[in-house]
Write a structure and sequence with these properties.
Chain lengths: 108, 108
Amino acid sequence: MAERNNNEGEELAVLDEEQASHMAELFQALGEASRIKIISALTSGPKNVGALAAETGFSESSVSHHLRGLRLLRLVRAEKQGRRVFYRIDDHHVLEIFRCGLDHVTHS
Amino acid sequence: MAERNNNEGEELAVLDEEQASHMAELFQALGEASRIKIISALTSGPKNVGALAAETGFSESSVSHHLRGLRLLRLVRAEKQGRRVFYRIDDHHVLEIFRCGLDHVTHS
DNA sequence: TTAATGTATGAAGCTATATTCATATGTTCA
DNA sequence: TGAACATATGAATATAGCTTCATACATTAA
């Protein structure tokens, strides 16, 4: 076996495959400038797809694709209002991580 | 102009291209299970390439490639000791973000 | 110096993903 | 009902990235 995930008291082991994958998924969702901009736009409140597209400069299709991924990961939540769909950041962890990343970038 | 990066007092604008790219770079570096495992292994102290390869189950070449990227982004720091090179997490922000992500994954 | 060890790196192949285009679904208004 | 609007989605193309392999570089030991 190539990996050692046992917790047999020796020392803190490397994360197992599932934990590592989940964490990677989370960070990967934030690991692209397009999505960073979208999430950044959402930090000031819920917005619909068209507004996000206009604000970020991406096509509505592209924004919608990204939002789908973020939705599946539960980083954003969708709420339908008429023919519009408003998205908001779903998890306070997400905002925390986002701000932490912003800190890292601005204070360096 | 497709984007609005002006801070003319209206409301907090979307991050500019450079900020967004830097944040994305940071998160992308954490956005892969291999690197998450490597960084996880480094949370318990400095380790050399061979040790990291053994602990994570990846080839030394692969680990070295990953470390190069992490090094260039200043997420880890290298220190040569004889013919070994020990790596450590370079920035407390990195550890913060890592733990935040771990929280997000474990408490959900 | 030669051999062995530890790490770094370029190239190649393969997989993953982002954006666009076309189209589908659903909603409001006339 | 039909037309315009808002969003979603599948397919396709293009680009990026990961792992492996081969090899180079650096250090230590003999």
